[in-house]
Design a protein that fits this description.
alpha+beta, Acetoacetate decarboxylase-like, 8-stranded mixed sheet
Length: 755
């Protein structure tokens, strides 16, 4: 009776998602070549394990009802003439309490509701268990016994057998000791490979037998096949907590395939061809959508979804361990959203036939689309095929969809949804399930798409031939292929955090460069030195309409060192210097307050006096676009957390640089700077925007040093008293991002400019 109820619930779930469409006939049952000798015996063990599991569920329901009665809540099925006899409330309560705590009855069997949860927690802490838990533990042990018939290493390997015995006996210290011995002697790879077939059952056993009350609910869900786990079975941490880092909605962008990839992509549709495409893509977050003209001339479409990266996070892509876990438990995962975006951009017409093929994390992401009623109402999902993927808790919305799952029993990844090789539940009788084992089963190698390809080609050929036959409508010429890069969230535009602006092309001698210039990754240091206002006015007297800004006869001289690793120009380093100046429209004593304004409303800025760059391209760009006196030099820039050093050495022997300790820094928001330069007797105003981790150092010991045999520039700098001078303050930026626009000529004529 309990088994009927269980299967009815599953069928109800399937019918709800499928609608009124008639289901297709069930496919033949696949039995792995390594299991055929023990198939009947294994099935008997699993049948008994299923019966015991159903009984455990029935007993648990009795415990819930009894606990509810004890708490004073009458359930409808227990009320009326067939309910509890009318006895004094105290006597009834004592009888119910005895029923829930007596060892010869239900055991320590509090369950359900606040009273049940508190009682169950107390029972776990005291080491007391219910009859339902004992029955479920028995079911799990029967499943392990079935696995031992197919995997003799579980009994032949003494270290593995010792670990299993420790789990059965529930000796916490002995379990840890046996696990350490297993990993020390065999290594992590062999240990994981040995544990993989029984991984789900071992986790459930440990969770049910330990004294941690927070993982019991998850163990019940996994051991009874009711649903995917809601928490981890070790400590009971919520799944939502473990997938917090994968909270995006998913996005995709079309990208071009590399030339060698175009040559290797399958030109005709076939199971092995599609899987080779997945192997070719690798696990960098790319997916492939192809259009195939079938034997009947109809154009169909195949979505091919690779697996996860070997990392906790996917560096912006949802194809990661966290992404795989979320896809297996949450239909609204980022990887699923990225696939939906790619399919929409590919332009598949409504009603078209689609096959979804996924490996590893790509399996649940693809199956999430297959079980989405809205997606299946728009497209006709004819096939859903997964390899090494946790998809047992997925239910396609269209019952006509052909579903095939291919799983190596030594692959741990498919057990992320709580069901492993020892499962006794046939949740999907209409699926073609290829669950097999083989001799070379080292994890993680057995999880790789190449390993599955080899097994399908040479080992489980019967399964390959059957699936190929079902894929006949897709056995035609590939007429279109498009790669898409997937993202957890909508990718940021180029140059972020700076928003897109109109661009222009500036012609250089060696080509062109796009303006504004951008630096997407680098580091920089801006040092401010006090100088005499009159002396610096002489240095900056070149006909410009700007004047050095002073306060009490002093002005500010700035030295800027930066290293651009990625950006509009080729990687280079620069060392520039300038002086703080006021705009031609004098602000008088209020000029300093302009530093508080936005750059587009600010007149105060820095007048560039010179610059040294490490590449000819950078020198030409600064000379041509901004008219800055730039020289080619050997420039080195090193900016760390505690100190900084930058030097520029020209061919004529001129050497400029500064370095020293930065001291502690105060985080400050990155700002923007107004720059003035002079090109062809015209004063240009430019805006330099900064972003990055910026710190203000007020006690820096970064001293400027100048050296050159008779150089006018260095002599002027010495006259300013800058040699070996300590700065007023420094701004350092690591992870620097910057953008500088083309200079705008100031209105009005410069002194000495031609009419």
């Amino acid at each position: 009776m309990g088994g009927g109820t269980r299967m009815t619930a599953v069928e109800s779930r399937r019918t709800h998602t499928a609608g009124a469409q008639p289901p297709r006939p069930n496919p033949p049952r696949f039995v792995s070549p390594h299991e055929r000798a023990h198939h009947e015996e294994v099935e008997r063990y699993k049948a008994v394990a299923l019966e015991v599991s159903v009984i455990a569920q029935a007993v648990y329901e009795v415990c819930e009802r009894t606990t509810a009665q004890l708490a004073g809540t009458r359930l409808p099925s227990l009320s009326g003439p067939l309910g509890i006899p009318s006895v004094p409330r105290t006597a009834r309560g004592l009888a119910l309490l005895k029923a829930l705590t007596h060892e010869s009855g239900l055991g320590f069997a509090f369950a359900g509701g606040p009273v049940g949860n508190a009682g169950a927690m107390l029972g776990d802490l005291l080491g007391r268990r219910s009859l339902a838990t004992a029955l479920l533990v028995l079911s799990l042990r029967l499943r392990l016994a079935a696995l031992q018939r197919v995997h003799p290493e579980m009994t032949e390997d003494p270290k593995l057998a010792h670990f299993i015995e420790a789990v059965h006996a529930h000796h916490e210290l002995e379990i840890l000791r046996a696990l350490r011995i297993l990993f020390d002697d065999e290594g992590a790879i062999r240990a994981f490979s040995s544990l993989a077939p029984m991984f789900a059952e071992i986790l459930c056993l440990k969770a049910l037998l330990d004294r941690n009350p927070f993982n019991d609910a998850t163990a019940w869900r996994m051991a009874t096949g009711q649903d995917a786990p809601s928490a981890d079975p070790f400590f009971g941490f919520s799944v939502k907590l473990m997938t917090l880092q994968d909270r995006g909605t998913g996005a995709a962008r079309p990208i071009a395939a590399l030339p060698h990839e175009l040559a290797l992509l399958a030109s005709r549709g076939s199971l092995l061809g599609f899987l080779r495409n997945i192997a070719l893509l690798g696990n960098d977050g790319r997916v492939l959508v192809q259009s195939v003209r079938g034997p009947d001339g109809v154009e169909r479409h195949v979505v091919q979804v690779p697996g996860m990266r070997p990392a906790f996070r996917g560096h912006g892509s949802p194809a990661s361990l966290v992404g795989a876990f979320r896809s297996s438990l949450d239909a609204a995962s980022a990887y699923t959203g990225a696939l939906r975006s790619a399919i929409a951009q590919f332009g598949i017409p409504d009603g078209a036939e689609i096959a979804l093929i996924g490996h590893s994390a790509g399996g649940p992401a693809a199956f999430n689309l297959a079980q989405d009623p809205e997606f299946c109402a728009r497209y006709t999902v004819t096939h859903a095929i997964a390899l090494g993927a946790p998809v047992d808790q997925k239910y396609p919305a269209d019952p006509r969809t052909f579903v095939a799952t291919i799983t190596n029993q030594h692959d741990i990844v498919p057990t992320l949804d709580g069901l492993g090789a020892g499962s006794c539940f046939d949740l999907h009788p209409g699926w073609y399930v290829v669950d097999y084992t083989e001799v070379t089963h080292q994890f993680p190698e057995c999880h790789g798409i190449e390993h599955y390809l080899r097994d399908l080609e040479y080992l489980v050929t019967e399964a390959r031939e059957y699936i190929e036959a079902r894929l006949t409508p897709y056995a035609g010429e590939v007429v279109r292929s498009q790669l898409y890069q997937t993202y957890e969230r909508e990718p940021r535009p180029a140059g972020h955090p700076f928003m897109p602006v109109p661009t222009t092309q500036a012609r250089l001698g060696a080509g062109t460069v796009e303006l504004p210039l951008g630096c997407t990754y680098g580091s920089g240091l801006l040092a401010f030195y006090p100088v005499d206002q009159e002396l610096v006015s002489c240095l900056a007297a070149d006909g410009s309409r700007t004047e050095p800004l002073g306060l009490a006869g002093r002005s500010v001289f700035a030295v800027f060192a930066a290293e651009q690793r990625e950006g509009s120009l080729r990687p280079h380093r620069v060392l520039a210097f300038g002086v703080l100046v006021d705009s031609p429209w004098r602000s008088g004593r209020l000029a300093w307050t302009q530093l508080l304004r936005r750059a587009d409303q600010r007149g105060v800025g820095f007048r560039l006096l010179g610059l040294a760059a490490s590449t000819d391209q950078a020198v030409e760009a600064y000379r041509t676009v901004w008219g800055v006196p730039a020289i080619r030099a050997r420039v080195s820039v090193s900016i760390g957390a505690l100190g900084a050093r930058a030097t520029a050495e020209a061919e004529d022997g001129t050497r400029l640089g500064f370095g020293g300790l930065l001291g502690p820094g105060l985080p400050v928001p990155a700002g923007d700077v107004v720059l003035y330069s002079r090109r062809d007797r015209t004063t240009l105003r430019s805006q330099l925007d900064f972003a990055g981790r910026t710190r203000l150092h007020t006690g820096a010991l970064v001293r400027l040093a100048v050296a050159a045999p008779g150089s006018p520039l260095t002599e002027r700098l010495r006259e300013l008293g800058l040699d070996r001078t300590r700065p007023l303050a420094c701004l350092s930026a690591r992870g620097l991002r910057a953008r500088i626009g083309a200079g705008a000529p100031l209105p009005g004529a410069d002194p000495g400019a031609q009419a």
